[in-house]
Design brief:
The chain is of the alpha/beta class and 230 residues long. The protein has eleven helices and eight strands. It is 42% helix and 18% strand. Bound molecules: cytidine-5'-monophosphate.
């Protein structure tokens, strides 16, 4: 079963409720999930809302990236959130940080799956150079995939352009791709994008999609997305 994660990128509980309400549809072969990122989690009532959610397939996209000790403690602080299935960490944090997060998950919330985030889909080859990287995005992501395997991550978040070689490194891991746009849609800040159909064809086990579902009626937009997968 493939997952379609809807990015609940809002700071409003009312809008989050609306997104969940409008996307409650049964789909053959696909499971809907919900992703709450920094905008929602940092909002005044965000955490409390997530805490009480009974919906399945929840992903807390807080992209942990800090020293090993602080990263460990952040998982400890989230230990009451037993309804969360996935959490994200930046693979650039390195093996020591990732191992420390894994240790915390094993201790406080065994069922939580850890997803390692590779180079963000909003980076292009030229903008990654500007932050000092001299290697190509492909090489950097390869290195990160090797680290993810060594740290026993449960899945990888990457652009759909990098799935094929990641699959060779991280054989059985879940692969979730952001940067998803239907043909002809605005890219906004995303640089390494692909259509949902192509992303699944390349081997994604899940996709995550936000803005392109949010304009107008969410239910209709999901149906349109599903139709585009035929
Ligand atoms: O609106 P859009 O479909 O571009 O949203 C993509 C979502 O995926 C956002 O919530 C963003 O934070 C998240 N994401 C991403 N790139 C990553 C990891 C997560 O765009 N590498």
């Amino acid at each position: 079963m493939r997952n379609i994660f809807i990015a609940c990128d809002t700071n409003s509980v009312q809008i989050a409720k609306k997104i969940i309400r409008q996307s409650r549809i049964k789909l053959k072969g696909y499971k809907i999930g919900y992703k709450f990122g920094l905008e929602f989690f940092y909002s005044k009532n965000g955490r409390r809302f997530i805490e009480k959610l009974k919906t399945k397939n929840l992903w807390l996209d807080i992209k942990i990236f800090d020293i090993p000790n602080t990263s460990f403690s952040s998982i400890k602080s989230l230990r009451d959130l037993k309804n969360i299935s996935y959490i994200t960490v930046h693979l650039s944090g390195g093996l020591e940080m990732l191992k420390s997060i894994k240790k915390a998950v094993n201790k406080y919330n065994k069922k939580l799956k850890i997803l390692g985030v590779t180079i963000l889909t909003s980076f292009s080859q030229s903008s990654i150079k500007k932050v000092g990287h001299t290697k190509s995005i492909k090489d950097l992501v390869k290195k990160q995939a090797i680290i993810a395997r060594a740290a026993k991550m449960d899945g990888i978040v990457c652009s759909a352009h990098e799935i094929k070689f990641i699959k060779n490194i991280c054989k059985k891991m879940e692969i979730i791709t952001p940067g998803i746009r239907l043909k002809g849609e605005r890219l906004d800040d995303q640089k390494r994008v692909m259509s949902p159909k192509e992303a699944f064809k390349n081997g994604a086990t899940s996709i995550v999609i936000g803005r392109s579902l949010m304009k107008g009626n969410i239910k209709n937009n999901i149906q349109k997305l599903i139709k585009s997968l035929d």
